[in-house]
């Protein structure tokens, strides 16, 4: 069988399993209401939690006054002022001494783990960590121990059994799990890290901007100081890219050893400049955070009253559990026909048999938008 035939066979297999993806096309800016494939719909599947993706101040800040591109890796052509200034602001925002920009959250996670541990070391990773954390563990070539999701007692037993075998150990977790909408037991993980002389790395991608004082994340809310903090700029900050923050020596090692930093062209200076402006908007967005979590609470209650299985949680992420791949995509299509865009989430993003509709409101949705979404789901419940 030829190469193209193998490709067609692989695509056919995805189709038969209900796993083939077909990205939809958006015309215009991202927001609570978007033009999707030529029709106007409510968007309830974006990570644009505070609605900053089309904020006028960020659009103005991203104009290309110092050029469009960065030229090359920062270790080749040097670091531009926009990158340095933004890193200083980000480090201050998360109350640490240094930060380094990456082109994406995926690159930040893969690069940071690979830079900090290697052969002869150990990583202890939550079973439901993001794919980028999982891939970072694999790329590091450290020995990986997976503990049961959010079970600190299981992590404790693994540390007691294996920690003495390694020179360095790193505990890795999301703070807010993006597909379940639940929090990691940050305080317990921090205690275990200290007891076993391990580093603690926390990916705050979905918590920054939403939780904690000034939106500084779950760690700040729980008064936990991780050794390494990962933040993304493509969610609450409304842009793209990511950063790794921590003590200066930790960040310096990452700058020197993270392959996704060393061998990547730096993010555009305009993006860095817009991110710096976004930090000030996020810090002052206490009303927006309150509105966002209020929307999430009303959605959670309304969907449960309509008979849907909404996973328990207190965050802005609401997983509506469905089960089957074809069923979840059929429901997503029906909702879209009713003017509400909610993406179906299938394996490998989630475990087989746990396909779900993942709702994420924005602070810029109105109460009427929330009511329309609940109404669309209620009608679905009656008709399907």
Outline of this structure?
This protein has helices spanning 3-16, 56-61, 74-77, 81-93, 105-116, 131-140, 152-162, 186-195, 218-221, 248-257, 259-262, 269-283, 286-305, 325-337, 367-383, and strands spanning 26-27, 33-36, 39-43, 98-102, 122-126, 143-147, 169-174, 199-203, 228-232, 242-246, 318-323, 340-341, 344-345, 355-359. The protein has 384 residues and is of the alpha/beta class.
Helices and strands, with pairings:
Layout: H1 3-16, E1 26-27, E2 33-36, E3 39-43, H2 56-61, H3 74-77, H4 81-93, E4 98-102, H5 105-116, E5 122-126, H6 131-140, E6 143-147, H7 152-162, E7 169-174, H8 186-195, E8 199-203, H9 218-221, E9 228-232, E10 242-246, H10 248-257, H11 259-262, H12 269-283, H13 286-305, E11 318-323, H14 325-337, E12 340-341, E13 344-345, E14 355-359, H15 367-383
Parallel strand pairs: 3-12, 5-6, 5-7, 7-8, 8-9
Antiparallel strand pairs: 1-2, 2-3, 4-10, 9-10, 11-14, 13-14
Helix pairs in contact: 4-12, 5-6, 5-10, 13-15
Explain the overall architecture.
With about 375 residues, the chain is of the alpha/beta class. About 40% of the residues lie in helices and about 15% in strands. The chain contains 15 helices and 14 strands. The chain has helices spanning about 5-15, 55-60, 75, 80-95, 105-115, 130-140, 150-160, 185-195, 220, 250-255, 260, 270-285, 285-305, 325-335, 365-384, and strands at about 25, 35, 40-45, 100, 120-125, 145, 170-175, 200-205, 230, 240-245, 320-325, 340, 345, 355-360. Strands 4-10-9-8-7-5-6 form a seven-stranded mixed β-sheet, sandwiched between helices. The protein has a four-stranded mixed β-sheet with strand order 1-2-3-12. A hairpin with a 2-residue loop joins β2 and β3 (about 40-45). α5 runs parallel beside α6 and α13 (about 285-305) runs parallel beside α15. The protein is globular.
